[in-house]
Amino acid sequence: MRIVCGTDFSAPGQQAATVAGLLARQTGGELHLIHGLGPRRRWDFTAERTELEKEGRRLQEQGVAVTGINAVWGDPNVVMIEEATRWGAELIVLGATGQRLADLTLLGSVASRTARESPVPVLVVRDAAPFVAWLEKSAPLRVLTGFERGESTNHALRWAASLRRLGTVNLTVAQLVTPGLENRRAEASGPGTGIELHPSTRSQLLEELRLATAPAIGDISATLTVKPAIGRTDIHLVQEAEGMHADLVVVGSHQRKGFQRWWHGSVSSGVVHGAPMSVAVVPYRPSES
């Protein structure tokens, strides 16, 4: 796997580089370290280059094939995407500053903007420890993926399922539904069916979820769950991830051009900003007619 990792030399940036290096090494791939210089008034970036080389040596000593080290002028999120495209990368890895991206700092903002625009999956790392335990100590990685019907979700599910090639993954697929609507569709009625799922409705939804996810995850064992959710889906999905102590949340992202692209207010945007654990955003670009 070819991986581009952006760093600003902070502790979160170093954690992201550690995870990127482990993924590159585990897949027999290559790692390209990038630092976006941003709007600087000085032309000498020797210090940044020195820091990049230092980080590259650290990863090479761990057996990572670091094949590129580059400090590039420009907005960091634009630089990440341009370098990933030019180099044919399959993944961009970035660090997240703070417990949540609501604590907006430069790196956190870069992670959000990169996830919005990237044509390849973006992994926003908040804690390297679960990935180190997964890839070096054979501990399972607890992964949650939200489900809604559509090719964007299927794309994200296939990506999440592909992680099983690298190590043990405990995959949970959660569908968040409006209880009143689903109970009426299943012709179930009774006290509380406006806010809770009737047992027969839940059984029907779980079977539908099993059939809907099978083409994307194949014979991979996954925990399927259906939960009532009234209000913002991203908040409920983050709460579900926290409840199961997930290490990683995988979300799909529709990417359309111009005014059709609504990142702000989307589930993927809300999860990137609100989740206290690492998040992978897997883009899906429908073919233009």
Description:
The protein is an alpha/beta fold and 289 residues long. The protein contains ten helices and ten strands. The protein has helices spanning 11-27, 46-60, 76-87, 106-117, 129-137, 151-162, 179-185, 199-217, 233-243, 267-274, and strands at residues 2-6, 30-36, 66-72, 91-95, 122-125, 141-147, 169-177, 222-228, 248-254, 278-284. Strands 3-2-1-4-5-10-9-6-7-8 form a ten-stranded mixed beta sheet, sandwiched between helices. Strand 6, helix 6 (151-162) and strand 7 form a beta-alpha-beta unit. Helix 3 (76-87) packs across helix 4, helix 6 packs across helix 8 (199-217) and helix 9 (233-243) crosses helix 10. The chain is elongated, with a radius of gyration of 20 Å. Residues 98-108 and 257-265 have low confidence and may be disordered.
Radius of gyration from the alpha-carbon trace, in angstroms:
20 Å
Global outline: elongated
Low-confidence stretches: 98-108, 257-265
Look at the helices and sheets and give the structural class.
alpha/beta
Summary?
This protein has ten helices and ten strands. With 289 residues, it is of the alpha/beta class.
Question: What key attributes describe this structure?
Answer:
289 residues, 10 strands, alpha/beta, single chain
